[in-house]
Design a protein that fits this description.
Layout: H1 3-26, H2 33-42, H3 51-59, H4 63-75, H5 90-96, H6 106-109, E1 113-119, H7 123-133, E2 139-144, H8 150-160, E3 166-168, H9 180-194, E4 202-207, E5 210-212, H10 216-227, E6 235-237, H11 244-247, E7 248-255, E8 258-267, E9 278-280, E10 285-287, H12 288-296, H13 298-307, H14 317-322, E11 341-342, E12 359-361, E13 364-366, H15 372-377, E14 382-384, H16 392-409
Parallel strand pairs: 1-2, 1-4, 2-3, 11-14
Antiparallel strand pairs: 4-10, 5-14, 6-9, 7-8, 12-13
Helix pairs in contact: 1-4, 3-4, 3-16, 9-12, 12-13
The protein binds 2-acetamido-2-deoxy-beta-D-glucopyranose (3 copies).
One 2-acetamido-2-deoxy-beta-D-glucopyranose (NAG) binds next to helix 6.
Organism: Chrysolophus pictus
InterPro entries: Glyco_trans_14
Keywords: Glycoprotein, Glycosyltransferase, Membrane, Signal-anchor, Transferase, Transmembrane, Transmembrane helix
């Protein structure tokens, strides 16, 4: 098939798909032929012409929508985001990327979140994540991997420069999966954050493949109602099968294009201060007082030194310190509770979820279209993992839904630039 034919058949397929959606799924309002024609010409680039109908049907798990969505996704390449491949001036960055430029309510304006975002690739995904969680009263520390290409770093810097409350961490690590550098990256950001003039209440860490499934307001309400003044570090006393992580000494191997952590034959000493080591999530939500404590307390500092040659120390460091009785906001008796991250782990298939409809990477699901309903029904604040290059429609649907929810909850007048889509009868139905 020559490229022209491919484009043509893609286009015909798209038309077929649209007609199908239009006829079978929505059937709500009948548009006049004139309006319909206008829709067709303006939204030609979008998968399904009426993406919100397709998304709404996917969110309730309609089988027909899944079939259409999968066909659609194979040919669909969403339009590139503005200001990502080419650089823009700041007023264009705010407008074209639809950044929300004022607090959407008093409650949100008076409760600031700090975010630590560690990234190394996929600029578009980073921008999508950033504009979803961005509000002017929050503060954002971006840790860009030291080994990322120079043009990637420059592009991130270019966007970040437009915002007074977003900065790149002053110290950068060459991050190795499961290595100490992953923990150190967060700590670098924390040092910068506690010295910032901008005040904040809680800090949340994210990676480049996370995306929020709750709004800024929902996140604040959840923290205030369930965790007021306490830290969230889901985890338990280190189970037997995790002991190897802290019993022998590990090393980071970094070489051009390759890096990993490997065990040595050297046994490790007991943890400092006889600390009981816990095992938990690397994702946390911590108070500012607790962060200050971890940066200054002798036990915290010694535990950090001791953790340098352990396996995946970010999965024991925060939870171990948050189980100390005298740490600020500590939860010594907590377990796995805390709805921080929706993740489909492979070993929880059949219990927590009914399988991954995308594919697994390192036993974690990269979400496909069939996972959308599970994601939006999850009580968690964020979900992981997303790969818009493989499943563009998954990201599009979640983005549209998230922004509609934000604007729906707003208690201030909404500016036109904040909207992703035209307000019309085809807008997504929201279960808010
Ligand atoms: C920013 O760029 C846009 C489009 O290129 C242009 O219209 C606008 O005047 C520029 N604004 C400033 C403040 O330079
Ligand atoms: C937020 O702060 C403003 C100004 O200080 C105050 O008027 C308002 O009542 C506060 N709102 C809430 C929900 O605390
Ligand atoms: C550490 O804990 C063990 C058992 O819990 C105890 O026997 C030992 O004396 C403690 N060591 C120190 C230095 O506190």
């Amino acid at each position: 098939m020559n490229p022209l034919d491919a484009t043509k058949s893609g286009f015909l397929l798209c038309i077929a798909v649209c007609m199908f959606i239009y006829t079978f799924i929505y059937l709500k309002d009948t548009l006049s032929a004139e309006q319909e024609e206008q829709k067709l010409s303006t939204n030609r680039a979008e998968c399904g012409f009426y993406p919100d109908e397709l998304c709404s049907a996917l969110f309730v798990g309609k089988t027909a929508a899944l079939k259409i969505g999968s066909i659609c996704q194979n040919t669909y390449r969403p339009a590139a985001l503005s200001c990502v491949q080419t650089s823009c001036n700041c007023s264009t960055v705010f407008k074209a990327l639809h950044f929300i430029t004022r607090p959407l309510s008093d409650e949100e304006g008076n409760f600031s979140l700090a975010y630590i975002i560690t990234i190394h690739k996929e600029l578009e995904m980073f921008v999508k994540l950033l504009r979803a969680i961005y509000t002017p009263q929050n503060i954002y520390c971006i840790h860009v991997d030291e080994k990322s290409p120079t043009d990637y770093k420059a592009a991130v810097q270019n966007i970040v420069n437009c915002f007074e409350n977003i900065f790149i961490s002053s110290k950068r690590e060459n991050v190795v999966y499961a290595g100490f550098s992953r923990l150190q990256a967060d700590i670098n950001c924390m040092r910068d954050l506690v010295h910032s003039k901008i005040q904040w209440n809680y800090v949340i860490n994210l990676c480049g493949q996370d995306y929020p499934i709750k709004t800024n307001k929902d996140i604040i309400k959840y923290i205030k109602s369930k965790w007021n003044g306490k830290n969230m570090t889901p985890g338990v006393v280190q189970p037997l099968h995790m002991k190897h992580r802290t019993q022998v000494s590990y090393r980071e191997y970094v070489h051009s294009g390759m890096s990993y952590v490997y065990p040595t034959k050297n046994a490790k000493t007991k943890p400092p201060y006889n600390l009981t080591i816990y095992f938990g999530s690397a994702y946390y939500i911590l108070t500012k007082e607790f962060v200050e404590f971890t940066l200054t307390d002798a036990r915290a500092k010694d535990l950090l030194e001791w953790s340098r040659d352990t396996y995946s120390p970010d999965e024991h460091y925060w939870v171990t310190l948050n189980r100390l009785h005298d740490a600020p906001g500590a939860t010594p008796n907590a377990d796995w509770e805390g709805n921080i991250r929706a993740i489909k782990w492979k070993d929880q298939e059949g219990t927590v979820h009914k399988g991954c409809k995308g594919h697994y990477i390192r036993d974690i699901c990269v979400y496909g279209l069939g996972d959308l309903q599970w994601i939006i029904e999850s009580p968690h604040l964020f979900a992981n993992k997303f790969e818009p290059a493989t499943y563009p429609l998954v990201m599009d649907c979640l983005e549209r839904r998230h922004r509609l929810k934000m604007l729906h909850q707003a208690e201030v007048p909404i500016e036109d630039d904040w909207r992703f889509q035209e307000d019309n009868s085809f807008n997504m139905k929201l279960n808010v």
